[in-house]
Known about the structure:
This protein is of the alpha/beta class. The protein has a single domain, classed as Rossmann fold. Helices cover 38% and strands 18% of the residues. It is built from 10 helices and 8 strands. Strand 6 (158-163), helix 7 and strand 7 form a beta-alpha-beta unit. Helix 3 (61-68) packs across helix 5 (116-132).
Amino acid sequence: MKLAVTGKGGVGKTSFTALFARLLKDKGKNVLLxxxxxxxxxxxxxxxxxxxxxKPISELKELIAERTGVIPGTPAxxxxxxxxxxxxxxxxxxxxxxxxxxxxxTIKKGGGGCACPENAFLKNLLSYLIVATDEWVLLDMxxxxxxxxxxTAIGVDHMIVLVEPNLTSIETAFRINKLSKDxxxxxxxxxxxxxxxxxxxxxxxxxxxxxxxxGFIDQSEVIKKISLNMISLMDIDPENLAPIENIYEKxxxxxx
Length: 256
């Protein structure tokens, strides 16, 4: 199954992605994590030591130049829109604790479309990873909705929008829902995060009646400590994954 995790900045997308990966690992699943967020924090949250972490794909300047036929960062009226990428996962994937991680990286735009070859390479690689790989793929996306305008998540089985119990997060969820339909994503779901009191669950359900709410995750000191790198994702008790388990079961019950 291929999942994309998105939502407003700060709602907990990376922590949720990491926890879902831990649950899948415990179940013996093959898992590929894709960090497509410009902040690139997923490696830190899952505990990858810096010395074994592979470079972000966007920093492979010579490789991108070779595959697209142009040097990144230079004006390029002509370049390959469908560069070869099928060998990239094996060469540039970080393996850690039975999880695989690919960091897409950030394109630093200058002007005049100078980043187009890099974007073509990353988009083609992302499409390949989503469509061609035979494993669970978890895509930690950038905050907001710009990525949907670029069609980044086309091909995923489910898109999960994380929301907090506040109106700005709800508004972002509505925008994501609209744009996801425009690019053909059929299965979009909501997960309420950082829940402190029962009334916050009611608030989310009442404001998102037109969307499928998969479940809720309570505000947790354990999850906060993972995000602060105070405890390891791999060392937490399985009971802390109970809300993620419920979401996993609901996703498995949905035909896609």
